Amino acid sequence: MFENLPLLTLIAVFGLLSVARLYRAFGQRRFLFDAYLGYTWLFFLTFIVSELFSYAVSVWILALVSFWAVREYFSLINIRLQDRLALVGAYLSIPFMYYFIQTEWYGMFIVSIPVYAFLAIPILVAWGGRESEGTVFSIGAIDFGLFLFVFCIGHVGYLLSYSVWMAALLILNVLVCDLAICLVRNRVERPIAKILLSWLAPVPIVLALSLALSPWTEIPPIHSIILALMIPVLVQMGHHAGRFVEADLGIQEDLLVPGRGQILDNLQSLFYAAPVMFHYIRYFLK
Amino acid sequence: MNAPSCISRAAVALHLILLRPFMKLFCGVNVTGRENLEGLEQTIVIANHNSHLDVLLLYYLLPARMICRTHPVADQPYFARSRVLYRLVNFLLIPIWITRGKPDLDHDPFGEIKSAIDSGRSVIIFPEGTRGRPGEMEHFRSGIGRLMAQYPLLPIVPILLTGPDRALPRASALLLPFWNNIIVGPPQKCVGSHREITHQLESVLVDLSRSERACRHKRRSQTVRPARCLAFLGIDGSGKSTASTLAAQRFSESMRVCLVSDELRVFEHGQPRELQPLPSEKLRQRISAYAKTVGSLKQYKIPKLAELLLRDRLLREAGRWYSPDLIVMDGSPLLNLLAWSVLYEQEELDNATCSTALGILSGLTKDISRSDNIFTRFPELARMKRLGLTHLSLPDIVILIDIDSATACRRIEARGQQRQVHETEEKLERLRRAYHQVCEVVRTDWRVPTRILNGGQPLENVMEQVLQFARASLVTKE
User: Which of B330, B373, B385, B440 is the least crowded, having the fewest Cβ atoms under 10 Å away?
Assistant: First the structure.
């Protein structure tokens, strides 16, 4: 019984999330974490798949998440008609990177987007280009999308290869921080208090979670404490940067549907947290 | 006339099982205002048209029971170009086929649409008539107003589609994943004259698009108008390339001008602008250089034809990518081709034949049978039509710089370059007459403003007249 406890817990959390999703789909009551329910559920689905079936399948589910996110982003930016070739390249870089995650080839995964895709985009824009005006914007916009939505999300996949529970801890911690920011945002007026509260309020819960799960994640307590202090800051940074990106893209908070910024809005807290936590663990613990 | 048959069960199943999930998962679809479609048994659906995806998106939106009783209106000659596509479209959508262009007086153009409506079918109409420029809505044609004036009680559902113009734009064969938004407006019932109805429906869609455009990233706003074409004709040595360059420079003081001459240039504020070279342009320059060195008229024919076709393609690409207000052409591919065919044909051509050939080459006359005797006389024409090369563009303004062949020969000699095959006095004289005839046809039959200028006078005088005439014609065109 007890040797199966981690798996059972994972299934229990996933079951709870599924029930909440079903209830939300048919009932009318809104939850606090309504907006984050969808992506948390999806990540836990990949964890379950990774534990029960195969790691490879779960990686490709994450690749789909990347595809959805990057598609939404490309639909929102004002890209020139002539950059279609570069967009094809951008979409193809998703399987390119996730393949290296699947084969757990770290050296290639870590350079796939920052070196190869990053360099491929400018030449593709130039090949497809008919006028020079707007080239820098197009290259920048496409590369930015790849870094955020493919490379950053890819880190969750590689973390999954270390241990499912490390990835689960990351998602749970980020969810807690998201909720704290959500609660604080509309209730606190003064800016300093807002920043401090949304940083410090989740720390006890995140710390408790990290310490409670540490037998399964195998993160020593000292590192758990550091991570618990770090993750809320990273999530806040992701939120803050994301808010500016959203405003420029014309995303309205009251109009969040998939395709109009919901995916971007949900994932923005992972953009800082996932890579930094991954590299922290890789540097100190592996 | 019979109503079109219902869409078969197999096709409906294909819609539901294959096309809908594909649209949802690969492209991504958002629907706002679906409640506007509730409770409607029979409607006319109108939407803006930017892409071939549009019609699939509208079928995505329809409730399953309405799919089999809804038919889009489509242009038959366009889809009949490919047999596979025609069969596929006929199986999936069963369109009501019409023919765009000049109305046939003894045949009611709405006959089949009306019989479909009378038998209780819903109809999808794209009132813009064609897929316009990506992301822009064009003015509605009056057809929708004329049709709806006869059905004042039928609800019209206006639908705005955004996204397909980027997922599968015109002139692109590759479908890319982009999110599509379908915005369904409230159903309209229209009363009034056909003009009022057209105007009212257009303003409903424009309002929808205004509210929609508010939530999308904006980088720059550019109003793109289709460019007007000014073509200079004339035999070699008439000074048309000098004149076209000067005209391009002068016009560029007030607008963006693209010059299609031996090379492609874009002028802005009187200055040439640096451009990214187009691959087809490089090819054209190679072929052109080769054509200048060949030894006989027979060898000259194929490279010259290829050069002219590429030049026409270049014209469209320039209009698409550099968005100029005016395109100045040193020679027009269409009119040059006509004049050259007069040179190759030994006997004289009459104006009527010339006009028919122009119609076929430009693709403006569609209703011409395959057995027409113009095709037996010019087998090349039939071959070009089969290869789909007959959509050369007709310029909006034509200026012929006229010069007698003796002067032309003297000027060519003064250049000191190698003479091309056709640059003999006798051949140039025939070419000159051919240009005159082409100009005559273009002016009388096709109503294009045309002016013949004497090229013998000093260049300043010629330029003065060119600018005056071109400005006046541009103003009247607007």
Answer: B373
Token look-up 């206006």 returns B158
Residue A218: Cβ within 10 Å count: 13
A259 reaches B (C-beta below 8 A)? yes
B:369-408 residues touching chain A, CB 8 A cutoff:
none
Q: What is the pLDDT of residues A149-202, one digit of tens each?
A: 999 999 999 999 999 999 999 999 999 999 888 888 878 877 788 888 888 888
Of the residues B164, B185, B213, which one is the last residue of a structural domain?
Answer: B213
**Pair (B388, B284) in one structural domain:** yes
Checking if the pLDDT of B146 tops 60, the result is yes
Question: Is B181 touching A (CB cutoff 8 A)?
Answer: yes
My answer on whether B184 and B293 are in the same domain is no
B153 and B251 housed in the same domain: no
B221 in a structural domain: no
Can you tell me the distance from the alpha carbon of A21 to that of A24, in angstroms, rounded to the nearest whole number?
5
The pLDDT of residue A105: 93
pLDDT in tens, B372-428: 777 877 788 888 888 877 788 888 899 998 888 888 888 888 887 777 777 788 888
| Same domain (yes/no): B78, B189 | yes
Distance of residue B439 Cα from the nearest chain A Cα, in angstroms: 34
**Domain around B72:** 9-213
Question: Chain B residues with CB inside 8 Å of A75's CB?
Answer: 28, 163, 166, 178-179
DSSP state of B404: -
Alpha helix (H) residue ranges in B345-388? 351-362, 373-377, 379-386
The ipTM is 0.83
Q: Give chain A positions within 8 Å (CB) of B216.
A: 76, 78, 249-250
Task: Please check the confidence at residue B224 and state whether its pLDDT lies above 80.
Answer: no
Domain end, chosen from B184, B213, B242, is at: B213
pLDDT over 70 at A262, yes or no? yes
Look at residue A128 and tell me whether its pLDDT is greater than 80.
Answer: yes
Residue A2's pLDDT band (cuts 50, 70, 90): low
Q: How many structural domains comprise chain A?
A: 1
B247 and B161 in one domain?
no
Strands across the sheet containing B264-268 = B271-273, B264-268, B257-260, B326-330, B228-233, B397-402, B450-454
Q: Which of B187, B192, B191 is nearest to B204 (CA)?
A: B187
**Whether this model's pTM surpasses 0.80:** no
* Cβ <8 Å between B166 and A79: yes
Please indicate if any CB of chain A lies within 8 Å of the CB of B60.
Answer: no
Please answer yes or no on whether A88 and B174 come within 8 Å at the CB atom.
yes
